[in-house]
UniProtKB/TrEMBL annotation:
One GO MF term attached to the UniProt entry: nucleotide binding
UniProt family annotation: Belongs to the sugar phosphate cyclases superfamily. Dehydroquinate synthase family.
Domain of life according to the entry: Bacteria
Signal peptide bounds: none
UniProt keyword Nucleotide-binding, yes or no: yes
Domain 3-dehydroquinate synthase C-terminal: 176-318
Keyword Metal-binding (UniProt): yes
Function: Catalyzes the conversion of 3-deoxy-D-arabino-heptulosonate 7-phosphate (DAHP) to dehydroquinate (DHQ).
Protein name: 3-dehydroquinate synthase
Length: 347
């Protein structure tokens, strides 16, 4: 098992392992009692028996409906009701056992129920292990706006078991891989080379390769959180591919997955970077080849480009009237700019 320290205002560890049984020992070491487990139906169907065995004496279990469309206020209220029903109190620890949806909801619940109860993240998707479980951002969707309500709330620890990733379907696995490619392009040229050299093994989900990429991405995320816990500057580098990606997701009514939209977003924004000579054509082609190799989409037909641009402007991350783009600068680095207009993509 490897450990990464996240030195935010509240420090905590991210544990990465192939041995899920180590979770029990950690819970004892951290003296966490009165566990309330939050998970979703898919994860419960796969791992319910395992949960019963690992945690024979828990305060409660709540199994929510899976997917982004359930990341809403009704689900949140339902969970508050279950906590109250079980007499959950300040001694209770909420365990987020699932993907980013479960993690984001659990984070919000833990930060608000009784003004804050303990939280541990046990992420089960690649997306959640590499990204959403680290950094404390949580929230839910409201009135069509993604993550518009939420807070920052750090867990006691994060426990990433690589073996959970074996049961993800291909589409969800690749969805997470898109975010890993993002980290590599803007933060870490060594990781980018590693992914390129181990493409086949990664598409076959070889354990040691998965371990390496989850470990490296967790380290990158931890370092960025240390420098910018509240997403004021440095953390925004992780929005590479997201200005265009978020707009595409919303334009297609969330019928394409976040990672798929980000893949198209990364290619569009890398193309902008090439036009500005921040990266050369060889680098741009390398990005396109890598994304294509994993069968992630590289383009999508948008009939109403003005609508796409207006969605981009509505993005809550926009600064004033200006759009913000994160553009790769030489591979392994990026710059954040507000100097570009959306139609620069097509100029
Ligand atoms: P998800 O939680 O919906 O999980 C994807 C699907 O995989 C679901 O159907 C789930 O039931 C299933 N699943 C989960 N674990 C599984 C396993 N081990 N085997 C088989 N199936 C499994 O989605 P996600 O991609 O994990 O996360 C996306 C969410 O994360 C979005 O809501 C996004 O806003 C959020 N997010 C948050 C942050 C943050 O910093 N808080 C960062 C990135 C993304
Ligand atoms: Zn993302």
């Amino acid at each position: 098992m490897k450990e990464i320290k996240v030195n935010s205002k509240k420090s905590y560890s991210v544990f990465i392992t192939n041995d899920v049984n180590l979770l029990r020992g950690l819970i004892d070491t951290y003296k966490l009692h009165s566990l309330f487990i939050l998970t979703d139906e898919n994860v419960y169907n796969l791992y319910g028996k395992f949960l019963d065995k690992l945690f024979p004496n828990i305060l409660g279990l709540k199994v929510i409906k899976p997917g982004e469309k359930n990341k809403n206020i009704n689900t949140i209220m339902d969970i508050y009701d279950s906590l109250i029903e079980k007499n959950a109190d300040k001694k209770t620890t909420l365990v987020a056992f699932g993907g980013g949806v479960v993690g984001d909801i659990a984070g919000f619940i833990a930060s608000t129920y009784m003004r804050g109860i303990k939280l541990i993240h046990v992420p089960t998707t690649l997306m959640a292990q590499c990204d959403s479980s680290i950094g404390g951002k949580n929230g839910f969707d409201y009135k069509g706006y993604k993550n518009i309500i939420g807070s920052f709330y750090q867990p006691e620890f994060v426990f990433s078991n690589i073996n959970f990733l074996k049961t993800l379907d291909d589409r969800q696995y690749l969805n997470g891989l898109a975010e890993i490619i993002k980290y590599a392009i803007v933060c870490d040229i060594n990781l980018l080379n590693y992914i390129n050299q181990n493409k086949k093994a990664l598409s076959e989900r070889e354990s040691d390769k998965l371990f390496h990429i989850v470990y490296q991405c967790s380290k990158i995320k931890a370092k960025i959180i240390e420098e910018d816990e509240f997403d004021l500057n440095k953390r925004q580098i992780l929005n590479f591919g997201h200005t265009v990606g978020h707009a595409i997701e919303s334009y297609f009514n969330f019928e394409i997955l976040h990672g798929e939209a980000v893949a198209i977003g990364m290619i569009t924004e890398a193309y902008m970077a090439m036009k500005l000579k921040y990266i050369d054509e060889k680098h741009f082609n390398k990005i396109v080849e890598l994304i294509s190799y994993f069968n992630l989409p590289t383009k999508i037909k948008v009939d109403d480009i003005e609508l796409l641009f207006s969605i981009m402007h509505k993005d809550k991350k926009k600064t004033g009237e200006k759009l913000k783009f994160v553009l790769p600068y030489d591979l392994g680095h990026a710059i954040i700019t507000t100097d570009l207009k959306e139609n620069f993509i097509f100029d």
